[in-house]
Amino acid sequence: MDRTHDDKLPIRMLHDRVLVRQDTSEGERRSGGGILIPATAAVGRRLAWAQVVAVGQNVRTVEAGDRVLYDPEDRAEVEVRGVAYVLMRERDLHAVAADRFEGSQDSTGLYL
Protein backbone atom coordinates (compact mmCIF):
# COMPACT_ATOMS: atom_id res chain seq x y z
CA MET A 1 0.00 0.00 0.00
CA ASP A 2 1.41 3.38 -1.00
CA ARG A 3 1.29 5.92 1.81
CA THR A 4 1.58 9.57 0.80
CA HIS A 5 1.48 12.73 2.87
CA ASP A 6 0.26 14.85 -0.04
CA ASP A 7 -2.57 13.16 -1.95
CA LYS A 8 -2.10 15.58 -4.87
CA LEU A 9 1.41 14.31 -5.57
CA PRO A 10 1.32 12.63 -9.02
CA ILE A 11 3.96 10.05 -8.18
CA ARG A 12 3.89 6.64 -6.49
CA MET A 13 6.98 5.29 -4.80
CA LEU A 14 8.06 1.71 -5.54
CA HIS A 15 9.69 -0.96 -3.37
CA ASP A 16 11.99 0.50 -0.67
CA ARG A 17 12.12 4.06 -2.03
CA VAL A 18 11.49 7.14 0.12
CA LEU A 19 10.68 10.61 -1.22
CA VAL A 20 11.62 13.49 1.10
CA ARG A 21 11.45 17.28 1.05
CA GLN A 22 14.59 18.92 2.39
CA ASP A 23 14.32 21.27 5.34
CA THR A 24 14.87 24.82 4.11
CA SER A 25 17.38 25.75 6.81
CA GLU A 26 20.37 25.88 4.46
CA GLY A 27 21.24 29.49 5.20
CA GLU A 28 22.95 30.93 8.24
CA ARG A 29 22.70 28.94 11.43
CA ARG A 30 23.72 29.32 15.06
CA SER A 31 25.97 27.06 17.08
CA GLY A 32 24.88 25.72 20.46
CA GLY A 33 26.77 28.62 22.08
CA GLY A 34 24.95 31.21 19.95
CA ILE A 35 27.73 31.92 17.45
CA LEU A 36 26.40 32.83 13.98
CA ILE A 37 27.78 30.50 11.29
CA PRO A 38 27.43 31.88 7.73
CA ALA A 39 26.03 29.70 4.95
CA THR A 40 29.36 29.92 3.10
CA ALA A 41 31.37 28.38 5.97
CA ALA A 42 33.10 25.15 5.01
CA VAL A 43 31.92 22.27 7.15
CA GLY A 44 32.93 18.63 7.17
CA ARG A 45 30.50 15.96 6.11
CA ARG A 46 27.21 17.09 7.59
CA LEU A 47 23.94 15.16 7.64
CA ALA A 48 20.67 16.97 6.86
CA TRP A 49 17.05 16.73 8.02
CA ALA A 50 14.11 16.26 5.68
CA GLN A 51 10.41 15.43 5.88
CA VAL A 52 9.11 12.20 4.37
CA VAL A 53 6.50 12.90 1.68
CA ALA A 54 5.90 9.41 0.23
CA VAL A 55 7.14 5.85 0.76
CA GLY A 56 7.07 2.65 -1.26
CA GLN A 57 5.18 -0.49 -0.26
CA ASN A 58 8.28 -2.23 1.18
CA VAL A 59 9.32 0.60 3.50
CA ARG A 60 8.93 -0.54 7.11
CA THR A 61 10.55 2.00 9.47
CA VAL A 62 9.27 5.39 8.29
CA GLU A 63 6.00 6.85 7.15
CA ALA A 64 4.83 10.08 5.55
CA GLY A 65 5.22 13.01 7.91
CA ASP A 66 8.32 11.69 9.74
CA ARG A 67 11.50 13.76 9.90
CA VAL A 68 14.57 11.81 8.83
CA LEU A 69 18.30 12.33 8.87
CA TYR A 70 20.25 11.56 5.68
CA ASP A 71 23.52 12.32 3.89
CA PRO A 72 22.88 15.11 1.34
CA GLU A 73 25.91 14.00 -0.69
CA ASP A 74 24.25 10.64 -1.50
CA ARG A 75 21.02 11.79 -3.08
CA ALA A 76 19.04 11.84 -6.28
CA GLU A 77 16.98 14.98 -6.79
CA VAL A 78 13.70 15.08 -8.67
CA GLU A 79 11.36 17.96 -9.39
CA VAL A 80 7.60 17.35 -9.26
CA ARG A 81 5.27 20.24 -10.09
CA GLY A 82 8.05 22.76 -9.52
CA VAL A 83 9.01 21.43 -6.06
CA ALA A 84 12.42 19.82 -5.50
CA TYR A 85 12.44 16.46 -3.68
CA VAL A 86 15.13 13.95 -2.79
CA LEU A 87 14.66 10.28 -3.71
CA MET A 88 16.53 7.60 -1.78
CA ARG A 89 16.35 4.05 -0.49
CA GLU A 90 15.16 3.38 3.04
CA ARG A 91 18.58 1.96 3.94
CA ASP A 92 20.19 5.36 3.17
CA LEU A 93 18.35 6.99 6.08
CA HIS A 94 20.40 7.41 9.26
CA ALA A 95 17.73 8.27 11.85
CA VAL A 96 14.04 9.04 12.31
CA ALA A 97 12.67 11.73 14.64
CA ALA A 98 9.03 10.97 15.41
CA ASP A 99 6.61 11.07 18.33
CA ARG A 100 4.77 7.94 17.21
CA PHE A 101 7.16 5.32 18.62
CA GLU A 102 5.48 3.25 21.32
CA GLY A 103 7.00 3.44 24.78
CA SER A 104 8.71 6.71 23.94
CA GLN A 105 7.16 8.68 26.80
CA ASP A 106 10.53 9.25 28.48
CA SER A 107 12.66 9.04 25.32
CA THR A 108 13.76 11.75 22.94
CA GLY A 109 11.83 10.42 19.94
CA LEU A 110 15.08 9.94 18.02
CA TYR A 111 15.30 6.42 16.64
CA LEU A 112 18.82 5.35 15.65
TrEMBL record:
<comment type="function">
    <text>Together with the chaperonin GroEL, plays an essential role in assisting protein folding. The GroEL-GroES system forms a nano-cage that allows encapsulation of the non-native substrate proteins and provides a physical environment optimized to promote and accelerate protein folding. GroES binds to the apical surface of the GroEL ring, thereby capping the opening of the GroEL channel.</text>
</comment>
<comment type="subunit">
    <text>Heptamer of 7 subunits arranged in a ring.</text>
</comment>
<comment type="similarity">
    <text>Belongs to the GroES chaperonin family.</text>
</comment>
<dbReference type="GO" id="GO:0005524">
    <property type="term" value="F:ATP binding"/>
</dbReference>
<protein>
    <recommendedName>
        <fullName>10 kDa chaperonin</fullName>
    </recommendedName>
</protein>
<dbReference type="InterPro" id="IPR037124">
    <property type="entry name" value="Chaperonin_GroES_sf"/>
</dbReference>
<dbReference type="InterPro" id="IPR020818">
    <property type="entry name" value="Chaperonin_GroES"/>
</dbReference>
<keyword id="KW-0143">Chaperone</keyword>
<dbReference type="GO" id="GO:0051087">
    <property type="term" value="F:protein-folding chaperone binding"/>
</dbReference>
<dbReference type="Pfam" id="PF00166">
    <property type="entry name" value="Cpn10"/>
</dbReference>
<dbReference type="GO" id="GO:0046872">
    <property type="term" value="F:metal ion binding"/>
</dbReference>
<dbReference type="GO" id="GO:0044183">
    <property type="term" value="F:protein folding chaperone"/>
</dbReference>
<dbReference type="InterPro" id="IPR011032">
    <property type="entry name" value="GroES-like_sf"/>
</dbReference>
<dbReference type="GO" id="GO:0051082">
    <property type="term" value="F:unfolded protein binding"/>
</dbReference>
